[in-house]
Amino acid sequence: MTHPTPRASSDMAHSSSRSTRSARFTRRTRLTTALAAAVTAAVLLSGCASTPAASTSSAGAADFGTGGVALSWIKNYEFAGYYYADKNGDYTKNGFSSVDIIAGGGTTNPWDTVLAGNATIGLASDLTGITGAIQGGAPLKIIGAQFVKSPVGFVSLKANPIASVADLKGKKIGVDAGGKLAVEAVLAANKLPADTVSFVSVPNGIDPLMKGDVDALVGFLTNYPIAVKQAGGDVVTLSFSDAGYAQFGDAVVVSDDMLTNHRDEVKAMMKSVIEGWNAALTAGPQGIADIAMEYGGKDNDLDAKLQLSSATVLPSFMLTSDTVKNGIFTLTPDLVTQAVTSLGAAGITADASQFDTSLLSELYAENPDLIPGFTVPAAQ
After folding, report:
1. CB of 121 within 8 A of CB of 267?
2. pLDDT in the model for residue 182
3. How far is it, in rounded angstroms, from Cα 354 to Cα 50?
């Protein structure tokens, strides 16, 4: 599901392909394509933890060639840590010649970019689509999540609010294709029929809500409420979690081949990403907003004020008592169980074998300095 950043331009197209790839990436693409069917059967029988294969790196410094991160949306404040990792040289320090930060928001799911061999990791904005893909045979694992508290929810106006599940009845909800699936999951989790609401396909931005074309929008609560307030609206929000549908946001997805046969490379990528996010969270809202404008402002007509306001809220979805203790991106067994249970209540088949939390556990055990001692933000 997409999570738009309101902005002036509606041009969201961003190619996930690149004209140049390292030879290693090209070979991996062919290997993944050729063996996907054969791997699938074994994947579905595997447990939650993968068995590390022998390191693919030779003696001496690692050389992983070109890596990639497939984002779940356009380049904005939400992905500041990946920009910091690039700007501070974390990717190259950890063995990559370069890393493509591939914008989302188009027609290709981030996990498809991973399966094509064009990204080392991908970010799934919520669990609805990715768990369905894995259940359908895609050789993928979820290894962590950027937002352990999902920021996705309903955004409405005080004059016609959606403050509880009961308020959904008869409402027109503005969504994209992925958003429709997520709302249907919320309804199913609450044992409500799909026709409880009507769906309206809407473009990026808050205009459909402000003009009265819809009663609510589905999006990230880090930015849509702020945009509505800036436009003079009295905003009311209902998170999916509060609506009985517990989710993670920007779940980190890797292929089973990478997790098993190129584990050191995935570790190097996650080490870089964590270092980048530690820098971003340390820099604070202004630093996050500034680097968002540097990496995505021109291409996406980002509003600097909105980036700053959104960056102020962002840490509250990343830093919890668990992630402050265990490290960002980590998922506890209780969180995985909660997510699987929530998906099941919505009629979506998922189980713990779709997750593998072992890699991040190993990474933090090997690099305890990656846990810098953040504090849990006060309630916003």
Report:
1. no
2. 86
3. 11
pLDDT at position 3: 55
DSSP code of 171? -
Q: Provide the percentage of residues in the chain whose pLDDT is more than 90.
A: 71
In the chain, the N- to C-terminal Cα span, in Å, equals 25
Q: Rounded to a whole number, what is the largest CA-CA distance in the chain?
A: 65
What is the full DSSP assignment across 93-160? Answer: HTTEEEEEEE---SSS-HHHHHHTTS-SEEEESSHHHHHHHHHTT--EEEEEEEESS--EEEEEETTB
pTM of the model: 0.78
- DSSP-based helix, strand, coil % in the chain, nearest 5: 45, 15, 40
Q: Is-contact 251 123, C-beta < 8 A?
A: yes
- What are the structural domains, with CATH classification, of the chain? 23-149+248-370 (3.40.190.10), 152-239 (3.40.190.10)
